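Kindly inspect what follows.
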Amino acid sequence: MTHKSAFVQTLIERGHFYQATDLAALDAAAFESECGGTPLTGYIGYDCTAPSLHVGSLTQIMLMRRLQQCGGKPITLMGGGTTKVGDPSDKNEARPVLTQTVIDANKASIQTVFAKFLTFGDGPRDAIMVDNAQWLDEVKWLDMLREIGKHFTINKMIALDIVKRRLDQEVPITFLEFNYMLLQAYDFLELSRRYGCNLQMGGSDQWGNIVQGVELVRRVDERQVLGVTQPLLMNTSGEKMGKTANGAVWLNADMLSPFDYWQFWRNVDDADVAPLLKRMTDLPLDEIARLAALGGAEINQAKIILATETTALLHGREAAEAAQATAAAQFGGGGAEAGLPTVSLNEAPSSLAALFVATGLVESNGEAKRQAKGGGLRVNDRVVDNVAIAIPEALHMGQEVKLSLGKKRHIMVRLDV
């Protein structure tokens, strides 16, 4: 089915669409926006629970990017207020309560990534960034109960998947967490009033919260607003993507190097290449179709393009091409150590096993021994079978040493003592 608006058509063709509160109305509003009418203004919220977002959040940033590419106005909502409560979705336990100092530091760190994907400014279709602490910090509890709380029923709240799952598993959900959906719905009401926002976007796991916000705006201000969700970042096997053996795939370069970020995309399964090219890059669909048709070993060409294009969007074209060159040299037996991530240690580990643990390549001395026994560890490209020995003398002399785990994990390590 062909839709009138480029926005809805793009969402469907590129795999961003999961469900909408009113798809026909969304299509009409987007079409009007694209024809020079009132801009379709959509928001996504990001809580400040860590110093960096990860690739699961990147899918949401790409959704805002699609909106702006189609003439809409994105609002990046920082959750300076809602982070104090914590979203209970997809969790079997309460999030830790963060101090204001930690929240502020996380927010400052997270904010840096958005300008790489969105155009911010004062124009009618430029993206803007706001913080829900602006209004949530000023909310009076009794006023919230009387004006907002009366529009929510406990029946609906406990029927939401994010709550029902916790109750079914007899995992406690605090009253603090239970209030999160009220605050998120109130965000939509405030954004509607302040900025004319008429669309909330998010992952499919946010559907219940989004519907609550749409209903609240309709009941309180008698205004029609819309919601749309996209699938979570999953592989074709139905497993969530975004983690490696060494942890989350962070977006900030100080938490995950451009080389390791490139490697994450390079190592996806063959069947995931085409869907990820559609959702996570700006490559034309006909070019993606050509790459998806590659068979056998040629699919690796498409994976390299996926890795390079995604890394270029986040870290810049130069960093992406450097990561590609480093990987090519590594797989071909060449050097290119300058492109590898570097780990600096403040003290000398007691053994080679401890060195691999300290750099994060393995989790324990026991794992180091097992990997070495199978020939999976190398120092300066030489296989090591005994990790009980002392660390390389070169480290004590101020030189960098290359450590490898298997064929795809390489780092440089040095001692800063």
Summary: The CA atoms of residues 130 and 158 lie 30 Å apart.
